[in-house]
Amino acid sequence: MTQTNTLPLPTITAFERSPDRGRGLARDSRVRWALEEVGQAYDVRLVSFAAMKQPAHKALHPFGQIPTYEENGLTLFESGAIVLHIAERHAGLLSGDANARARAIAWMFAALNTVEPPIIERTMAMLFEHDKPWYAERLTLLDERVHARLGELSSRLGDADWLDGEFSAGDLLMVTVLRRLESSGLLANYPTLSAYIARAVARPAYQRAFAAQLAVFTEKAVGG
Amino acid sequence: MTQTNTLPLPTITAFERSPDRGRGLARDSRVRWALEEVGQAYDVRLVSFAAMKQPAHKALHPFGQIPTYEENGLTLFESGAIVLHIAERHAGLLSGDANARARAIAWMFAALNTVEPPIIERTMAMLFEHDKPWYAERLTLLDERVHARLGELSSRLGDADWLDGEFSAGDLLMVTVLRRLESSGLLANYPTLSAYIARAVARPAYQRAFAAQLAVFTEKAVGG
């Protein structure tokens, strides 16, 4: 990756300690991947869970989360918005054709507003309700909702490589959302989606992004 | 509203019967409002709940929902993507300043990926778990999550009229999300947010959009 200008690099924030033990699910992975796809170098500032909720970080991110993105007087939050910002300013993540570009953006919103919410709801239940008497019954209900989305997504994808023509920011976000299910067993019914994920994570840009995020966890783990 | 060209109007889809009895919460309201803000006339095609799940509609919307948006060979789904598409092609919903525009888009994603999911989860629990023995305990938990978001949003808004400078597509989506809580009582703690919603729904474009959506319900109710 070569920098062709002398501006300061964009800076993103990421977790100081990996909540998923380096599985690559934290939302900075989306931004790292997008930056790697377009060949833009970046700096990372690590923040602790405590620091995220302090005023200094909340000035960057109103909801006290990561990632944030800073460049030349612009501060952004929301991984979807940051990926779109990167995709709009560099080639590689959105088609030059206006209609194909609009459809890729529709897939970005679909990933984050239609597919991810039932998956996050299921994860939250596993984290916070696993010892409740209602857990088994609710999990069945949540699995059904996730299956409904996966079935529809799988049908639409069919035997195509990507959701709409070339690989786009829509695929990037959708794959990061689907990866949240890798340990759930729910993807087993959808070989089409498993192949889609495998195809995406085999991309060199994904591999570089994953390794960079993992290195934070590994170094921390070694360091103590 | 004046049409200045002879192209066919964009066509959106909306529910044939209002699931909220005309309260204006169905997602076509976002698209109607955006179109009214920018002064773009549109056609509406009403679809039944059964028809939404049929192949003809799923060809337009992979998840079998509304709204969709069709114009000149382009078909879009996802209300967020449709609102962004409209905002990019007309003045009035995104700033001409590149940084302000990017920040408004961050608020669009925040509305749909950070604020809406816990609100929808709460609504789903009210619809599908109200007769379960665990309902009261879960509702408390869900209310806490919604309150966390509302508190952060209220703090960021402060005494400003809108989330970032002028009214934008970010405010439009955020207000439609917050309106889902109007009957919950949860907004009572946040006079700042209640005033924000009131300011938005007083806009003539919102009023026209609401009236157009309500007319579908009213006419259906009268008709049978």
What does this structure look like?
With about 220 residues, the first copy, chain A, is α+β, with helices and mostly antiparallel strands. Chain A has two domains: about 10-90 and about 205-215, Glutaredoxin; about 100-205, Glutathione S-transferase Yfyf (Class Pi), Chain A, domain 2 (Up-down Bundle). Chain A has helices at about 30-40, 50, 55-60, 80-90, 100-130, 135-155, 170-180, 190-200, 205-224, and strands spanning about 10-15, 45, 70, 75. Chain A has a four-stranded mixed beta sheet. In chain A, α1 links the parallel β1 (about 10-15) and β2 (about 45). The longest helix of chain A is centred in the middle third of the chain and has 31 residues, at about 100-130. Chain A is globular. The mean pLDDT of chain A is about 95.
What is the C-level CATH assignment of the largest domain in chain A? Answer: Mainly Alpha
Strand content of chain A: 5-15%
Work out the radius of gyration of chain A.
18 Å
What's the main sheet of chain A like? 4 strands, mixed
Largest interface: chains, residues each: A-B, 45 and 45 residues
Global structural class of chain A: alpha+beta
Across the major sheet of chain A, the strand order is 2-1-3-4
> Stretches of chain A where pLDDT falls below 50 for ≥5 residues?
none
Instruction: Name the helix and strand elements of chain A from N-terminus to C-terminus, one letter apiece.
Output: EHEHHEEHHHHHH
Q: How many β-strands of chain A, per DSSP?
A: 4
Number of domains of chain A: 2
